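Usage

Read records sequentially. Each one opens with the input sequence:
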Amino acid sequence: MFKNKINIVNMNFSTTTNNPILYKAIQEATKKAIIIIAAARNSFNRRPGFPASYPEVISVASVNCKNQISQFSSQGKIDFCSYGENILSTAPNNSYKLSSGNSVAAAHLTAIIALILSKPEKWGLPPKHSINKDKIYNVLLKLSEDLGEKGKDNIFGFGLVKFK
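and closes with the structure output:
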């Protein structure tokens, strides 16, 4: 782990260009068992972009309340999907607003992973310092509802993760 004991990082940005410096940083982080979640790019029918396309990253696409893929979601290297359309969120001036985007879905999945990390024993996981992407991925598989084609597909990944 890094000095500040980070276990999880949410990356809510996307670029169409592979950045070797960013990729190296992600590789270094995942070697230290830091779990990286990234929003797929908001570009329906196009590739998810980077960092979501890196193999070390858990990439997330958005679905709506009817479990349909959001029209802005990408296709390609998608690992899971989460709710990310018309989600009530905080806003400036002590107010609220509806937010949509793959970044909203990625934040939602990051929160689920944080809850898993808060009680790893409940999920049959070792202490936090021993949990890596593969171990979290296996828990997410158990929590996901397959949508679309059976198994992993380029639209929903392994499906919609629901915290139970």
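Summary fields computed downstream for this record:
- The chain has one domain: 8-161.
- The mean pLDDT is 92.
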